[in-house]
C-alpha cells in the first residue's frame, strides 16, 4: 500500500533541499507536486486542499533547524500533518458490556465476513478474549456457511443460524447464548448491498437499535479510493459509527482511502487488512503509516511483529550454539528462512526499515519469497549429515539434491554461498552488537540483483 504515493512524495521532497529557510517561493513548486501526488493517490479533493494549506501554514517562514536540512524539515512537517489527517493516535476497540458486542457494516464485496473472522482471531490471540460470531446475512447464499468455515479456521465459536430466520430473532438468540456461556465479545456480521439505499439503512438501523453495540465498525474496500470515504460518510450519517476497517489495503498502491476516511467521517480507522490470510489484520497507527508513506520506515510494527511471530526459545538456542563455536549449519539456515517467511518475507521486513522503501520494492520485483521457498526445498532434499556438513558435498550428492528439489546446480551453489556469508556474519556477532552486525550483514543476504547499498548502511534521504 502507498507505493505510488510514497515514491512520488519522496521524489518531490528532495527538490527542496539546499535552502537555509523555508519560504513561500521555494516550497511553492514542491506543494504543487504534493497536491498532484495526493490527487493521483485518489485522496478526496477537500482533504487535499486542507492538507496542502496546513503544510503551507506550518512551513512558510520556519527557520531550518541546525540538526535538519531544509528537505528534512519539510519532511517533518509533512509527516506531522499526514499523521493528524489520519487521526493522530491509534484508536483501540472499546469493549463494554457482558458480552461486548461489535456490529460490522458495509457494502457488498467489501470483505465484512473475512474481516470479522480476522477480528475474531485478533481478539482471541492478542487480547485473550472468548469470542462468539454470528451472521444475520439472510440474503447472500452460503453467507452463514462461509462464516462457520472461517470461525472453525480461526478457532472461535459460531452461533448457528438459518437463512429462514429473521435478523432480530437471530440476534436475540445469539445475545442470550453469549450471556449464558460467558463470552467476552459477540461479533455480528450483517448483510451488504451493492449501493447505499433506504431499505438497507432501515434494516441496519433496526439491527443496531436491538443490539446496542459498543462498537459499530464500517468495513470498506481500500481499492475504491475516495469513493470509500464518500460511502463511509453516507453510512456515518445513518449509523452512529465508532470506527472504520480498511480492507484489501495490500492491493491498493495509492492509499487515498486511508488519507480521506478520517477527515470525511470524523471516525478513526481502527484496523487495516493487509492480505487474505486470517492473521493479516493490523491495528491502524496513523504515525506509523505516515512514516511508511514517506519512506521513513516503521520499526515499532517490525518489532511487534517479531515479538509475535519469532520463536524466542529457538533464537536463544541458536545464539548459545553459535557462542559455543558449534557453527551455523544448513538446518539453522532453514530455520531462519522459515522465521522470515512468518514475518511476511524480505520485502515486508525491508519496507519497515528507514530508507529501505525502494529496496523493498526491488525485493518484491525479484520475488524473494519464491527464492526462499526454493532454498528451503533444496535444504529439505538433503540428508541430516549433508545439512551439517555442506562443505563436504560431492558432485553426485549435489546432483541428487537438485533432482530431489527440482532445482538447478547454480541454485544449490548460490544457496551454499549465501550460507557461507551468513556463517561468517554469525561468527562476528556478539551479544552486545548482534543487531548492528545483523543489519550490516543483511545486504549479503538479499536476493541476486539487490546489492549496491554501499557499506551496508541505509541510503541518505536528502
UniProtKB/TrEMBL annotation:
Residues 268-281 form the SRP54-type proteins GTP-binding domain. Signal peptide: none annotated. Its main location: cytoplasm. It is found in: Cytoplasm. The keyword Translocase does not apply. CDD domains: SRP_G. Keywords: Coiled coil, Cytoplasm, GTP-binding, Hydrolase, Nucleotide-binding, Ribonucleoprotein, RNA-binding, Signal recognition particle. Its EC number is 3.6.5.4. It is an enzyme of class 3 (hydrolase). GTP binds at residues 106-113, 189-193, 247-250. InterPro entries: AAA+_ATPase, P-loop_NTPase, Signal_recog_part_SRP54_M_sf, Signal_recog_particl_SRP54_hlx, Signal_recog_particle_SRP54_M, SRP, SRP54, SRP54_GTPase_dom. Involved in targeting and insertion of nascent membrane proteins into the cytoplasmic membrane. Binds to the hydrophobic signal sequence of the ribosome-nascent chain (RNC) as it emerges from the ribosomes. The SRP-RNC complex is then targeted to the cytoplasmic membrane where it interacts with the SRP receptor FtsY. Interaction with FtsY leads to the transfer of the RNC complex to the Sec translocase for insertion into the membrane, the hydrolysis of GTP by both Ffh and FtsY, and the dissociation of the SRP-FtsY complex into the individual components. Part of the signal recognition particle protein translocation system, which is composed of SRP and FtsY. SRP is a ribonucleoprotein composed of Ffh and a 4.5S RNA molecule. PANTHER family: SIGNAL RECOGNITION PARTICLE 54K PROTEIN SRP54, SIGNAL RECOGNITION PARTICLE SUBUNIT SRP54. Composed of three domains: the N-terminal N domain, which is responsible for interactions with the ribosome, the central G domain, which binds GTP, and the C-terminal M domain, which binds the RNA and the signal sequence of the RNC. This is Signal recognition particle protein. The lineage of its organism: Bacteria, Pseudomonadati, Pseudomonadota, Gammaproteobacteria, Oceanospirillales.
